[in-house]
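User: For a benchmark we're assembling, each entry needs the component sequences followed by a predicted structure for the full assembly. Here are entry 17's components. Please fill in the structure.
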Amino acid sequence: MDPSIKHSFAMTSRYNTHYPERCGEALDEALYSTEAYDTWRPLDPGRASPVFSRLAALPALTKQELRASGPQGFVPHGRDIAEGLGEREIELVATSGATGDQVTNVWYQPWWNASEAASWQLNAYARAVTTGVHREAILTSPWCAGFPCEEGYLTMEQRTLGRFLFLSERSDPSSWSGDLMDRMVKELNAFEPVVLEANPSFLARLSRHIVRRRQHVHSPALIVLTYENPSVLHRRQIHRVFDAPIASSYGATEAGYVFMECEAGRLHQVTATCHVDFLPFAAEHGGPDVGRILVTIFGNPWRSLVRFDIGDVVRLDGLTPCSCGRREGLTLMSVEGRTVNLTLSPEGRAVTQGSIDRALGSIAGLVEYQILQTDPSAYHFRFAAEGAAPGPVANEARDALRAVYGPEAVITADRVESMAPDPPGKYCLSKRLVPIDPDVLLDGQFAPSEL
Ligand SMILES: [Zn+2]
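Assistant: Structure for entry 17:
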């Protein structure tokens, strides 16, 4: 077998009849009408090849390249950003990543809305209750969406924008006062949102407060978890308070809505607005069910994005087809966290944040945690406990972590009062002091080409 020939996992998925054509249009627009892809063109095996093979022959698009070419480099057909801004058709939006990680994106609201509406079709509850004019409360870092105010407080009116109510102007839930959380409960009861969209760790923090104070809170018709990957612990804490169905929505500022959790608990690809290339890890690192994803978007006149490395690790669903009946595109068991959340076992096997989270998920009294791998066989476990003695929680967690990392793992534990998110407001559940190069984990047959 020629090792330079790359394989495409998409060959094994089911799509509607127009889907390959849409992929082809997105690819041709990038290669032949968008400046940033000029250097990719020689790698294209050509239009006579199946589109999934053409995509597989190309590199991955990284955030560094998005920064290097700038937003104009990804606008197809010579459209001009300055004109679009002048006519108020588009805006420029910087992603909320750490400073060195920021990307400026062209924001074209009609495409974003279409991508969101397509994602709603993949969950029966969302399809039933989202009208596009429904009331929505949002609980996330105000630096991601809303109105930040870290000193003093804003009125409800100042945090309302049309049909949206932003529940918090503060970005660090570990410093929320009891009064602030009481206010959130009062506002949820008064506003009665149809959908509550929340950062799961933020809503979990509020849920624990509601349980402690035995408060009553309005349950929306649907809770959508987004902005960060929900932990089993967060979902459990939210479930104790809200009886609404919960759906996890997965996407990125750069790429729109990519996966949506269905009513049966699996994540389905938003095939109306994007294609996803799955790059399995090598067998010793959890492949072929675990791997990374590259996203190609369809139909955004202001943005050509092909094989964008969104930076996350996913686990495919072995149980196909999903019991909800949806058949198209990739179906995931879970999003397993970001590549920066990967750790290694002492023998060098990749361990995803999802694997750690499932192992710790049933420990009673554990409410927050973070694992830091400091050495090839040393792991530091910080945790917050509520309603349980810290000693037994730490012991149970050490046992659970040894089951994941193996008997050679040396695990130290420290109890903390609470845990603060990383800026701009996302919790990190696991990481390695020296991050892993995620390229070395891939099955070489699927690895992106180098330029
Ligand atoms: Zn399903």
